[in-house]
Amino acid sequence: MIARDPGVAYRHHVIALLLAAAAPVPPPGLDAASLEALRTIDLRLATIAHRLVTANAQLCRDQAPATGMVLHAINQYDRETQPTARQVFGFTAPISVEAVVPGSPAAAAGVAPNDGVLSIGERPLTAAAAPPSSVDRDSALTLLERAATPIRVATTRGGRTQAVAINAPLGCRSRFEVLLGPEMTAQADGKVVQIGVRFFERYRDDEVAVIVAHELAHNILRHRVRLEAAGVKGGLLGELGRNASLGQAAELEADTLGVTLLYNAGYDPASAARFWRERGGDIDGGLFRSRTHPATKRRVAAIEAAAAALGEQQRPFVPPILASRDQPMK
Fold this sequence. Notes:
Layout (H helix, E strand, L loop, with lengths): L11 H7 L13 H24 L7 E3 L3 E5 L8 H8 L5 E6 L4 H4 L7 E5 L2 E2 L10 H12 L4 E7 L2 E7 L3 E3 L2 E5 L6 E3 L3 E5 H6 L2 H16 L2 H7 L11 H24 L6 H14 L11 H15 L20
Helix pairs in contact: 1-2, 2-7, 7-9, 9-11, 10-11
């Protein structure tokens, strides 16, 4: 659906392997090159997300400490892949640090990729679920989200255990995952933002940030809850009548707030309209465009209006559209 953009030079066979399954459980039988490529993509998303959630914390009712630490568990990988995962990622503990956002609180505290994580606060971490499963990784993320700053973490590296205190500021509470598979997909369910791996193959980080901000805006504006409360149907029924109209309204709200999220995070607010003007024809799908999504021309107009309204506002700017998150969709 989206035209290829020369930017990220991942080897084609690595990308082909990554396109085999959906997050958060990686596909089976990955080799070392594929695992390193996946780590690179995960770090790119985490870096964009960390910038957005920390800069826009004031806009979010649901907040959590933003550490900049990307965790994964050995049992997220199938048994065939686990020996290679141990070789690439270390896994000196069942829960480990896959990546660390440069300049983040975790990086400042000395946390490094491949560190094992023994405990968060007073809670020891284990990985008991049968692989492949993200249950134990998700449990560790829940502990991080509920922890008070400074977050006390016990890590292990090279056979040595270290007590780490991470002074993490609050950010918008959302989890971010790379969605593996052949489709150009981005979605948010109120708690998790998933961005298709092909966005990272085809676009620069400032372009991907437009999509991440849009999906984060859905969570901030409580669109899933509000659409369900309005009785919006999914599937084929979602393409018809009132269902489609409310879906388009939610998309335009997310487009509008997404511009502010980019602005507050120091991105060029004009980048959203530019992205849709240049890429919209590929994303739109023409006659096959989902009727729950507005046409590209309409999106660009709404985005440009939102960017023009920003002017030179002091950051973080808290836009009036946030009032809509308490209003029924109609």
